[in-house]
Design a protein that fits this description.
By secondary structure, the chain is mostly beta strands. The chain has a single domain, classed as Pnp Oxidase, Chain A, CATH 2.30.110. The strands form 2 sheets. Strands 1, 2, 3, 6, 7, 8, 9 and 10 form an 8-stranded antiparallel beta sheet that branches. Strand 4 and strand 5 form a beta hairpin. It is globular.
Length: about 140
């Protein structure tokens, strides 16, 4: 169909568990990215410079939550992990609440709370909490 843009995959019901607590219904936006760490390589002096791929790196996970101060919700879960230094926990994410499979992989990684706002927003607007989870372990990808 000319002129029609269609998405191959839409995010409707991302699942996100933080330290064993399901916070999926509070997620507005999630950014869970990997990149290749590179190092500068030179051949024959400076005449041919190129980047060499080294390692796969998982970047900080960034999540925009709808804030909720109730027990076992966003603030209670994140703050409990943040308030105690060197608390590490698993963050588990999937693109859909459907069963884990090759077309809906489950990503699990050990993290810590790197940044969380205690109070953020504009008068009359949604109360959001943009949390950064620092990576502290290897990424596991389950497909079954």
């Amino acid at each position: 169909m000319a002129g029609v843009i269609t998405g191959k995959h839409m995010l409707y019901d991302v699942t996100l568990s933080v330290n064993g607590v399901d916070l999926s219904d509070h997620v507005e936006k999630i950014e869970f990215s990997t990149k290749t760490n590179t190092a500068r390589g030179d051949a024959m002096g400076d005449t041919q410079q190129y980047d060499m791929a080294l390692l796969l790196v998982v970047e900080d996970i960034k999540v925009s939550f709808f804030q909720d101060y109730a027990a076992a919700k966003v603030y209670a879960t994140i703050n409990a992990a943040w308030i105690v230094p060197q608390t590490y926990f698993n963050v588990v994410a999937k693109a859909s609440s459907a069963a884990t499979s090759a077309t809906n992989p489950q990503f699990t990684i050990r993290c810590f709370v790197k940044q969380q706002p205690l109070l953020k927003g504009t008068h009359g607007d949604r109360h959001m909490s943009d949390v950064d989870f620092g990576v502290a372990g290897n990424l596991a990808i389950a497909v079954a």
